[in-house]
Amino acid sequence: MDTQKEAYKVEAYELLSELETSLLELEASPDDFELVDRVFRAMHTIKGSGAMFGFDDIAEFTHDVETVFDLVRDGQIPVSTHLVNLALQARDHIKLMLDLSDQTDAIDQNETRDIIDAFRAFLEDTPEQGEDEEQEIIALPQEKSEKPKPSKKDAQTEENIYRIRFAPHEDLFHTGTNPLNLLAELQGLGHSKIILHTERLPAAEDYQPEACYLYWDILLTTEKSIDTIKDVFIFVEDACDLSIEMIDTLSDLMTDPKNKRLGEILVERGDLTPDLIDTALSGQKRIGEILTDSKVVSKEKVDTALAEQTFVQESRKRHEQKASATSVRVAAEKLDTLVNLVGELVTVQARLSQKAITDRDSELLSITEVVERLTAELRDNTLSIRMLPIDVSFSKLRRLVRDLSNELGKDILLKTEGGDTELDKTVIEQLNDPLVHILRNSIDHGIEMPEQRQAAGKPEQGVIRLKAEHSGANVLIHISDDGSGIDAQTIRKKAIEKGLLSSEAERSDKELLQMIFLPGFSTAGSVTNVSGRGVGMDVVKSSIENLRGTIDIQSQKGAGTTITLKLPLTLAIIDGLLVEIDTEKYVLPLAAIEECVELTQETLADTHGRNILNIRGEIVPFIPLRERFAIEGERPSIEQVVINSVDGQRVGIVVDRVIGEHQIVIKTMNSLYKNVEEISGATILGDGTVALILDIQKLLKDISVESLAA
Amino acid sequence: MAIEKESINGRLVCKFSGDLNIWEAGNIWQDILPLLCAPEPLTFDLAEVGECDGAGVQILCQIQNASTAHSKSIEIATLSQPVTAALQQAGLDPNLFTEHGEES
């Protein structure tokens, strides 16, 4: 049962996330009934499954929200900002109930009651609900005891097609029952086709408006059991004739591709005998026309049989589409294990290739070539499984922008682009906090108040754009706003005040803007509870760097700011340049490398110990790795300088030899090495030796700070 | 439920306002029946109808039947949102229902 509860929680969290997105979209498009349906369905599933898996408090709480959205579906309650606000509040409360499902006492019952009361107020304010609705609200507490107990049948996953004939007795209306509500409830169980029969209506003169003459045939495709369908009619079973038949299971339908013919359906339903069909078939016309013309069955009955035939055909088509889009839910840990195993396999495959080359065994070489190709395919496929669209992250930000702009009295529109761009799951998970921070800054300090914007000749509504795009093995995320921008000279002033820059130092605007990523730096005139304490952008930068990404900022005073994040597609495997110092091997991430140049003893002597190189007229500082890591041994006469570009700065790393490009499977370091900042991980090479992966950003940190403060 | 009647170009336009439900069905039918039996062509304007339930849908079906039975020109013009929703729930296509009219 615990596993089932966990499964429910996972599904409910996903539904809540979808719900939030739908509600925010609904606020922007209140007339979109598809969105209202989506909200209703999410609430309906959270409630229904909640009751089934023992989350009775959630089911009870969600009931009123669902009822209100059912009335929104019926057009009885309009979509308003108040309703969306309340629904978002309810969504947050359900999430809290899920988070604290093991400690239900921690839930503030007053808040629960307040939200329920607010939703009930909608029901009371709905004039169309009349006495019926009042009875429904009063009857709510009873519902718990009447709730159908979950049965194995309820959990069945196979879809069946049911034919339901619901023929109310003439006195059904006298009980105050509205048959349309029952039909709506049936529609909630699955895909349905409702066919109304009016042939029992008498002539106008004999018509009794309080008598019910209508009856219905309902075709329903659902995973629910026949008992669940019967439960819909539980309160009217004495006031109607009801027949429920399973006419097909979709699995049977798929194995038997033949659609039922019209005559077969009519005979099966008892509307015709096989003999009458045979007689009618002797004609030349289509069967439907023959039967109608022969007056053995009414046109209405033929039409409903045709509707049934079409419904079954459509159900088959939908089932086929569904089958082709079937997905499997897999625990993230299992995926991580799979990626690790593929990593091991890549390493072993590299060793095997190495062995084949060393032994000059041509047969083994041809086998290793095939293994190498298959391993590469397996690796790419495995990594692609972990990829998620970045819209997962963007959706969460829509709520942030909405709530924060409301709080600050600003009018801000969030536009997203490239939400289908995929990134590794781990990258997406760790990207959320930095993105939140950047957006909070944009909303609080970037976008001006409406009156200020108007005075500056801008539209009152500010715009924040989130755009994701591929760039080689990286993904670029641009966060831009059309706000007030950052004044480089204000940064300069603050930097001098804080002693981070001497008053004589000359810096370009680009260099000055980079200073906002220094710890404790803030240009905000005032500290708010949103941002401005200067704690943040340095953390954002280090978070992005931990993801082996980079951050860049461009801003123009009065026009806005754009922050660009450059992130690797995956964290598990990178392209690296394998280098050697003495017998030690290191890996430099290829993404930051621009070129390699030679460093001769003569050139080195010309630098007079200042560790700078003149490369085509540009002065580039370098770090001799041998000295940095205190590696003993003799320096070769010609060393190699690997030029990296970090944060717009070019810096060289001096090594003995460059071995070549390699796909590197990253292994995390033991916690004993957690304080070794310059190393971000390790990898096992083909010959079984270990190579350390250098963290260029960390390696250059000292140089950057020194050079900026100079 | 109130019915406001107005003769326009030889048609009697009946504008409904209020609920079209079981509680009102008796009164509404009492008002409608003589109109259905009269020779004058009819237009029913349902743009201002509030709640509409199964009994309301049944009256609309009866109006349609009367149109066929008496070979009388009866149009249902505009539908309010609750009427549209009720027709859909009953399994009817509101657009086909208002052959001559538009949905509000």
What topology emerges from the helices and strands here?
The complex is a heterodimer of chains A (710) and B (104).
Chain A: H1 2-28, H2 33-52, H3 56-73, H4 81-99, H5 109-124, H6 130-138, H7 140-146, E1 160-168, H8 179-187, E2 191-197, E3 215-222, H9 226-232, E4 240-249, H10 250-255, H11 262-268, H12 274-281, H13 287-293, H14 299-324, H15 332-359, H16 362-385, E5 387-389, H17 391-408, E6 412-417, E7 422-424, H18 425-446, H19 450-455, E8 462-471, E9 474-481, H20 488-497, H21 509-514, H22 537-546, E10 550-556, E11 560-568, E12 573-581, E13 584-589, E14 593-600, H23 601-606, E15 612-615, E16 618-624, H24 625-628, E17 638-646, E18 649-655, E19 657-665, E20 679-684, E21 690-694, H25 696-709
Parallel strand pairs in A: 6-8, 13-21, 16-18
Antiparallel strand pairs in A: 1-3, 1-4, 2-3, 5-7, 8-9, 9-11, 10-11, 12-13, 12-19, 14-17, 15-16, 17-18, 20-21
Helix pairs in contact in A: 1-2, 1-4, 1-17, 2-3, 3-4, 3-5, 4-5, 15-16, 17-18, 18-22
Chain B: E1 2-8, E2 11-20, H1 22-37, E3 42-52, H2 54-69, E4 74-79, H3 81-89, H4 94-97
Parallel strand pairs in B: 2-3, 3-4
Antiparallel strand pairs in B: 1-2
Helix pairs in contact in B: 1-2
Descriptive account of the structure:
- The complex is a heterodimer of chains A (710) and B (104).
- With 710 residues, chain A is an alpha+beta fold.
- Chain A has 25 helices and 21 strands.
- In chain A, strands 6-8-9-11-10 form a five-stranded mixed β-sheet. A five-stranded mixed β-sheet of chain A has the order 19-12-13-21-20.
- Chain B has 104 residues and is of the alpha/beta class.
- In chain B, 43% of the residues lie in helices and 33% in strands.
- Chain B has four helices and four strands.
- In chain B, strand 1 and strand 2 form a beta hairpin.
- The C terminus of chain B is likely disordered.
- At the A-B interface, helix 8 and strand 2 of A face helix 1, helix 2 and helix 3 of B.
